[in-house]
């Protein structure tokens, strides 16, 4: 007997909201940097810092997701071992 697929799914609306929020925040940051009363090198520094922040956020999200997936995989393996032990156990078998 196999367990049903219980992996949670994101809705299309949630995915669209996340993508729109990311785009708006990235464009807003770019416009804000462009209109600051700064020299070119200072704007470049802020732009590179913002880009580094975005890429590090993606990396952190991937690491957290990978850790969660590995823990759930180990949990499923442990559950399968336990089910196998229970299925093989016969309390009425004679010990000799």
TrEMBL record:
* Keywords carried by this UniProt record: Membrane, Transmembrane, Transmembrane helix
Residue ranges crossing the lipid bilayer per the database entry? 12-38, 44-64
User: What residues does the YiaAB two helix domain cover?
Assistant: 14-66
**One GO cellular component term noted in the UniProt record for this chain:** plasma membrane
Answer whether the UniProt record assigns the keyword Transmembrane to this protein. yes
Q: Which Pfam families match?
A: YiaAB
Record-level GO BP terms: DNA damage response
Sorted alphabetically, which InterPro entries does this protein's record hold?
YiaA-like, YiaAB
Would the keyword Transcription regulation be found if you checked this record's keyword annotation? no
Protein origin, superkingdom = Bacteria
This one is known as YiaAB two helix domain-containing protein
Task: State the organism named in the record.
Answer: Nocardia camponoti
